[in-house]
Design goal:
The protein is an alpha+beta fold and 191 residues long. Helices cover 16% and strands 19% of the residues. β4 and β5 form a beta hairpin.
Length: 191
Amino acid sequence: MRSFRTEQYVIPGNIIFRQRGTHWFPGDNCAMGRDHTIYATECGYVKYYKDPVRHPKRQYIGVVFERNQVLPLPPNSMRRRRLGMVATTIEAPAAVEADVDPSLPVEGGIVQIQKSTVKERMGEEGRTLRLRPGYMYREANWEIGRAAERAKVKVRDFVPGDRWKAWRKSTIRKAKTAEKKGLGRSVKVKK
């Protein structure tokens, strides 16, 4: 059952063709629902066509942006995309002549620009970031863990296996919990 005729205007979400099974397949700027309904994904005009390059026997439904366009588009042709943009070649900008400040040092017609020194934050002296796997600029975890040392912050040394301290903390915590539970109980009086 056809809902839209050829060259009829549709908006995204409009159901173009409702079918049982796959007699028609989605083409350009269309998609298929799980009940094989073909709907538009872009604004444009409906076109029914065959594409022997993709599949020799299938019939496709597509949406084009201008009424006079024909589907299927030739391979490697410029295609109009979302927001009405068309892919075009980039033109090189014309050379710009700029007035050079006479106070800048010039060597052989090349102006040398001196980098201003950026004040590093405390603890980040000599810090270099490298591109790591996953395209991240970050330090390794062992370097991050030494940030306090670089910032010259005094940190209490970690004593591995200090079970005595852990036992004292857990005992104090258990005693406080038992005390809270004891305060919450109410005494029942027999009559």
